[in-house]
Amino acid sequence: MQKVAVVILNYNGKTFLQQFLPGFLSCTEGHEIIVADNASTDGSADFIRTKFPNITLLPLPTNLGFAGGYNEALREIKSDYFAIVNSDIDVTPHWITPLVEFLNMHPAYAACQPKIKSFHQKTHFEYAGAAGGFIDSLGYPYCRGRIFDLVEADTGQYDLSTDVFWTCGACMLIRARVFWEAGGFDADFFAHMEEIDLSWRVQRLGYKLACLPQSTVYHVGGGTLSKTSPHKTFLNFRNGLTLLAKNLPLAHFWKIPFRMVMDWLAALKFVIENKPSHSWAILKAHAEFLYLLPKNLKKRKNFKAPLMPTKIRSIAWAHFVLGKRKYSELKHQ
C-alpha cells in the first residue's frame, strides 16, 4: 500500500486550524496528517501541541512562503504521495480516496486534484482551482469553472474526470518521487503560480495531470493574503512573467514583452479604478522580473519540452472581446 502524507502548511492560520483540523481527522481515512508551521506568531504551534497532539507538528524556523515552506517541510517527510492542502480547506468524507486510487491505477499521471468549491458560496466553484486548471498561449491561467474573476455555479457540468494543465496548490495529490524529480516548487516564487510552474515542469518530464470531480473540498481562499492586497498583485504579475521565462520554448519568447504590454494596460485599468497601489505593484513586479531574469534563465532545464501546451490562444480575447463567460463556451484548439 502506498504511504500518503497529508501536509498542511500554516502561517498565522490558527482560526482555520481550529475550524478545519477536526474535519481532516474525521475524513482522511487514517493517513498521516502533518502541519508544517511557517514560523507563525499567532500561537498556532502551541495550539496544535495542546489541542491536536495526534497531529504531527513540523515547525519551520522562518516564514519561507508557500513554495519554500513546502519544500522545506516535504524534505523531512518520507512518503509515496504528498497531499498538499491549504489550512483554509474544508474536506469532505473520503475526499482523498479517489485521488489515491487514481494515482495507484494510472502510473502515467504524476498528480491530481479534487473539485474545489467555495466555502462561502457552496453552490459555486472556488477561484483558485475550480474543476482543473489550464493556461492560454500567453500563459494566462483559467479553470473549468472560472475565467478571470467570473466563477461559475456548479451544476454538474464538469463532473467528468479530465486531463488538466495544472493542479491547484490549494489541494492536490502528487507523487513524492516526481515532485523531487521535477525540482519541487521554485522557492523564488514565494507564493502564487508556483503550482503552475511545477505542473509545467512535471509535464515536460512526460507525466500527465488530472482533475477528479469524484472528490470535493471547499476552499475559503485568501486566508493568508487577501485578493485585494497590492502584494498579491505584485506576486501574480511577477510570477506570471517568471513562469514564461522559465518554461517557454525559445521560439515563443516574443510572448514575454507582449505580456508586459498587456500588464501595462492592467496597470492603467487600476489607475482608472483609483487603485494606484496596484498599478505601482505591477511596475515593481516588472522591475523585479527583469532584475531576476538572468537567474531564472539559468533554471531552464533541457527537458524533452513540448511547445506551449494550450487549448485556447487568448483567454482575455475570448472573455473580454467575444464575451465568453464559461469554460464550456470556449472554442478549444
Structural key phrases:
alpha/beta; 333 residues; Spore Coat Polysaccharide Biosynthesis Protein SpsA, Chain A; globular; 10 helices; two-stranded antiparallel ribbon
CATH architecture of the largest domain: Alpha-Beta Complex
User: What's the number of extended β-strand segments?
Assistant: 13
- Helix coverage percent of residues? 25-40%
Question: Which structural category fits the helices and strands?
Answer: alpha/beta
CATH evolutionary superfamily of the largest domain? Spore Coat Polysaccharide Biosynthesis Protein SpsA, Chain A
- Straight-line N-to-C gap: 40 Å
Question: Which outline best applies?
Answer: globular
Q: Fill in the CATH topology of the largest domain.
A: Spore Coat Polysaccharide Biosynthesis Protein SpsA, Chain A
Explain the overall architecture:
The protein has 333 residues and is an alpha/beta fold. The protein folds into two domains: 4-219, Spore Coat Polysaccharide Biosynthesis Protein SpsA, Chain A, CATH 3.90.550.10; 230-329, no CATH class. The protein has helices at 14-27, 44-51, 65-74, 97-105, 176-181, 194-204, 230-247, 255-272, 276-297, 315-321, and strands at 4-10, 32-37, 56-59, 81-86, 89-91, 109-118, 133-135, 141-143, 146-147, 150-151, 162-163, 171-175, 208-219. Strands 1, 2, 3, 4, 5, 6, 11, 12 and 13 form a nine-stranded mixed β-sheet that branches. Strands 7-8 form a two-stranded antiparallel ribbon. The longest helix has 22 residues, at 276-297. The chain is globular, with a radius of gyration of 19 Å.
